[in-house]
Amino acid sequence: MNLREKYHIRNDSVITIAGTVGVGKSTLTKALATSLNFKTSFEKVDTNPYLEKFYDDFERWSFHLQVYFLAERFKEQKRIFEYGGGFIQDRSIYEDTGIFAKMHYDKGTMSPTDYETYKNLFDAMVMTPYFPHPDLLIYLDGSFDEVVSRIQMRGRQMEKDTPVSYWEEMYKRYNNWIDNFNACPILRINISDYDLIKQENSIEQILEKVGHSLQHSSRYTRKQLTR
Ligand SMILES: Nc1ncnc2c1ncn2[C@@H]1O[C@H](COP(=O)(O)OP(=O)(O)O)[C@@H](O)[C@H]1O
Ligand SMILES: Nc1ncnc2c1ncn2[C@H]1C[C@H](O)[C@@H](COP(=O)(O)O)O1
């Protein structure tokens, strides 16, 4: 029996991983996809034509970057749909608006008109009954100090050059955002409770929680019954 079967995870499940920059989403995405034999959907950082410019001048590039991310994530959503699921997704589409666009608007680095335009586009594309929400959102949580040290350790220059107050603001917003999130079921995991590098059975502990959360989600059970 493989790990997916052992933990009663359907092979058409869609699991998205949310959490602040540097917390460990991509690392967990890879580990989960490998153990479940799922496909991955990653945020592409190296080929993003706006990201460095954005970190250099938020005001000038925030609208362009949000529209770019929205288009990229929507294309990924389509790909996931076309494959019929079986995906682990690195960052949810909900964070783009709920965290990033809102934060830049509130801080005055995205104009009210740009924010309104972006929000209208987002709502028309995503917040409709036609948009398939994930079966589960895994929310990765950790201490602020650990998150900042991971950003430094990973070493993307644009992020290292960004004032720590930016990450602090984002961190606070994430805590608030997840407490009010209800678009799909959530599983919260603290990064101090597992170590994918040193503890071999860490991934199984996470898979057990994932299987349990999915089994207890009425939407997932409904999906199971209609198959
Ligand atoms: N469980 C872990 N233990 C130790 N270091 C980790 C762990 N998960 C991620 N990291 C490290 O933290 C940094 C950020 O991780 P990453 O997965 O890229 O975060 P995110 O995708 O959330 O921005 C990377 O240097 C990565 O190697
Ligand atoms: N919607 C976004 N707006 C601004 N910046 C964003 C958005 N989504 C991701 N980012 C940035 C944050 C990081 O610098 C990179 C990649 O994120 P990570 O959490 O490391 O996967 O893109």
TrEMBL record:
Pfam families: dNK (PF01712). InterPro entries: DCK/DGK, Deoxyribonucleoside_kinase, DNK_dom, P-loop_NTPase. GO terms for molecular function: kinase activity. Transmembrane segments: none annotated. Keywords: Kinase, Transferase. Residues 15-211 form the Deoxynucleoside kinase domain. Gene3D superfamilies: P-loop containing nucleotide triphosphate hydrolases. Belongs to the DCK/DGK family. This is Deoxynucleoside kinase. It comes from Oceanobacillus longus.
